[in-house]
Amino acid sequence: MRRPFAALRTAALASGSALALVLAAGLPLATANPAGAQAQPVRALDSSVGGFNLASVNALLAKGDAAAASGNYTQARKDYDEAREACRRLLGFYRDLAGAFRGLDARIPREMDQKGRDALEAQAQASLRLAALFRRQNQPEVAVPLLVEVVKIMTPAREEGRKAYQGLVELGFVTTPYNSAGPTLN
Q1: Inside any domain, residue 28
Q2: Residues of the chain with pLDDT under 50
């Protein structure tokens, strides 16, 4: 049974997904062109149309940085949260696609794995920026879980993981500084 268009439209708008609205309406995935011009497909890589990709995530991060610099912490938090959520969704899609093609065409899983690593790095950057925002607002209890998440997903061997751990040291959540030169066993 098909849901009425109005209900689908409401659900799509509530989820913030223009794609869901287009699919719900049964419309083709093409841009509207005047007077019979040939339709051009909408590409996920085109950040100018609100694409669902890392370029759009980076645009959200830049928007959040600008908002934070101007003192609009509410907008900055919203932008960083949206960037983190987009990264999580992208990671899931990249993993699903990689798994679907494993054993069939090695090029596609390799590409999806690289895109997943890039999305994970972008997620770490968004989390670091959000944690810094909370620290500026004197809310370390909200910053700590974000910093722990970054250490977990990036490991202390990566720059983002080291920055996150250093933030935990600065907040007093941990006391042992991390020496990236190697472990000391005493």
Answers
A1: no
A2: 1-37, 39-43, 45-49, 186
